[in-house]
Amino acid sequence: MTKNGKRTGARMEHWTLDDIPWDAFDRSRLDPELVKVVKAACMVEHRSSEYAEYLCGVFKGDDQFCQDARTWAREEVQHGKVLRRYAELADPDFDFNSSFSRFTTGHIIDTGADQSIRGSRCSELIARCIVEVGTSAYYSALGDASDEPVLRAICKHIAADEFRHYKLFYTNMKRYQQVEHVHLWSRLKTAIGRIAEAGDDELSYAYYCASNSAEPYDRAKFSNAYAGRVFPLYRYKHVQRALGMSMKAVGIKPQGRVGKIVTALCWRVFRGYVRRVERIAA
Ligand SMILES: [Fe+2]
Ligand SMILES: [Fe+2]
């Protein structure tokens, strides 16, 4: 503990809900569409302890990593708690328990694995890096897009955690790569595969559950609705940094010739995708 009572050290959360300036909440600057996105994110973050169980199964014997993975999960769950509090403040009708129960019942996570579904520990850590790339870009974009001061402050705290999480998995990935020597193509395949999984059910189903809709779940409909709300928030700087971090995890220099071509190409593809989901959402 420091003199002012804040917790320090790599094994404790870097901030608490008391560090958020809740009194600065300004309803007049609230964007109801962003509140829907916050509700979905809060449910996904709340489930992170289940992923820690999976990681500790995959990294059995690596006690330090397992300890770090549990700390990581506590921080992710804290993201869920702070986002829940914000969602309840912004929308007093939001019933977290009911939405979360619906979400966990309808979307099951397999936590019983004793080896990585990615083929190696190095590849598992590349996949984890990609997830943190996604979340750090997501909260950076969400915070930058919001005019409401409390949401901006929350996103700033969470994004800082997500960048640190990336560093945690990246450092461990480099350590395992020295032993496992996973080929560049295999690393690239893992990264692309994990990026593609971002389009799977979890976020769109969370978005559906948070909306409290009485209609049956239609994956395409809610996936497009979610994408149409979230991806237009991303600016070039968010995408460029995310691509740079992804390439670094794979072993490609972002500032090299290949890196620059990949960035330019991906930005064009991304903008085309955003235009498409905006058209569908409209
Ligand atoms: Fe998180
Ligand atoms: Fe994270």
Explain what you see.
The protein is mainly alpha-helical. It has one domain: Ribonucleotide Reductase, subunit A. It is built from 11 helices and no strands. The protein has helices spanning 32-46, 48-58, 63-90, 96-106, 121-145, 149-180, 184-197, 201-210, 219-230, 236-250, 257-281. The radius of gyration is 19 Å and the shape is globular. Mean pLDDT is 90; it is low at 1-11. The site of one fe (ii) ion has 6 residues, from helix 3 and helix 6.
What distance lies between the first and last C-alpha atoms, to the nearest angstrom?
51 Å
**DSSP strand tally:** 0
Instruction: Classify the fold: give the CATH topology.
Output: Ribonucleotide Reductase, subunit A
The distinct ligands, each listed once, are: fe (ii) ion
Q: Which band does the percent of strand residues land in?
A: under 5%
Mean pLDDT: 90
String of helices and strands: HHHHHHHHHHH
Separate helix tally: 11
Poorly predicted ranges (pLDDT <50, ≥5 residues)? 1-11
Major sheet summary line: none
Alpha-carbon Rg, integer: 19 Å
Helix/strand-derived class? mainly alpha
- CATH top level? Mainly Alpha
Q: What is the CATH superfamily?
A: Ribonucleotide Reductase, subunit A
Q: Level of helix content?
A: over 70%
CATH architecture: Orthogonal Bundle
